[in-house]
Amino acid sequence: MLSRPRPMLARSKIGRTARGFATLLLAAAVAVSTSANAFAQNVPVVRDAEIEALVRDYARPIFKAAGLANDGIDIVLVNDQSFNAFVTGRRLFINTGALVTAETPNEIIGVIAHEAGHIAGGHQQKLRDQLDRAKTMAIIATLLGAGAMVAGATTNSRGLAGAGVGVAAGGGEMAQRSILAYQRGEEITADRSAITYLNATGQSGMGMLKTFGRFQSALSLSGTQLDPYRISHPMPQERIANLEVLVKASPYVNNIDPPALQQRHDMMRIKIAAYMQGQAAVSRLMRKNPTSLASRYGDAQQTYLYGNPAAALAKTAALIKEQPKNPYFQELRGDILMKINKPKDAADAYAKAVSLDPARSGLLLVSLGQALMAVGTPDSLKKAVTQLNNGIGRDKENAEAYRYLAQAYGELGEIPAADLATAEGHFYSADYKDAKIFAMRAQQKLKRGEPGWLRAQDIINYTPSNKLK
Ligand SMILES: [Zn+2]
Description:
Layout: H1 6-9, H2 13-17, H3 29-35, H4 37-40, E1 45-46, H5 49-65, E2 74-78, E3 85-87, E4 91-95, H6 96-101, H7 105-120, H8 125-133, H9 136-150, H10 157-162, H11 166-169, H12 173-177, H13 184-200, H14 206-216, H15 228-232, H16 237-249, H17 259-277, H18 279-287, H19 293-306, H20 309-322, H21 327-339, H22 343-356, H23 362-375, H24 378-394, H25 399-411, H26 415-427, H27 432-445, H28 451-461
Parallel strand pairs: 2-4
Antiparallel strand pairs: 1-2, 3-4
This protein binds zinc ion.
């Protein structure tokens, strides 16, 4: 399931219908929202096991070719219709707008290769190091902010400063506008490096050329605002012309994405359309090939979100029959079963999804934990605790998972553990004051020196750094 942070979901249609919002890295969102409320509403991160795994699969070979760490990369999906992508080193930020715009995996892989080229070239290294220490939401505020500024939005700089970014940018609009800007020479270097990585992995540069070429046209990709990516990456005609020569000289220029990868890409696009854009967007994507697996996936999802759960269940069963090993079809089945209040069956579906998931996503385990909680027997609550802890083990900063964990411990009467989990939930939401209150409360009932007590002490001792410099 594609899910948004709970506060932003509250009044949306998806919020009412979709279950199991395994939130997020809400991190500095709290800080942002207090000082720039309007902006906070535009700073959403979405979590989704399927999309995160796919983008990681796009990035992995490129990062390897670039000599960058190829494990432990966190994929951060920013729910914004504009085009943007940015790599700090350990996190890859990418807008859902970029993913849904790209018709092929190769278009995204090309952009990732170009970003890897900037890292390998040491471009903006100081800023990148600063951002790598920053909270996820603060970075997103910067990435979105750059576009919002130029589009003339009334984002106030105190909001960004509250997120710890305005400080680094120097506060002024101009500084924020250029915070991620590369120089022309750096763009040429990054383009060349990107071609090297694409060649090393036997992939074409045509997708990158197509994407950057589109930025050349007068219209932005999203059509509604200037794309932040175009602002940070200057794309004069000459650069595109040079890139075209390089791309066409590659022996792999005519290589296309493997059909199975293209299919996953198509399914990702239609999922973003279904959960984030609505039925018209789904129909648009289905029109080209209404009977494809991706179209039927989109149809099942929109039936679940906007229509009839029983019909959605039947459509999902047909998908499962066609791809019995697809973990995300099982996940969708679980989501639908939760919606119609069959948590036991949902737990079975999620358990199947977990067992089939090669990417070992923590999100699926959290969904399983929630379903087991909903079953509500003492035995299933104990199992829920185990699965939620497993999920957190794979996804340590999932604040929402800690909240479910706290609830499960609470229902089992394990109060110190519930308090500590609540403290963790606040901690990873960057609400350090409440985190400390609950950590202290937990400590009172824990034995001094035991692991839980020590973790509580870490939270009590934590001093957030509000500065990037
Ligand atoms: Zn660039």
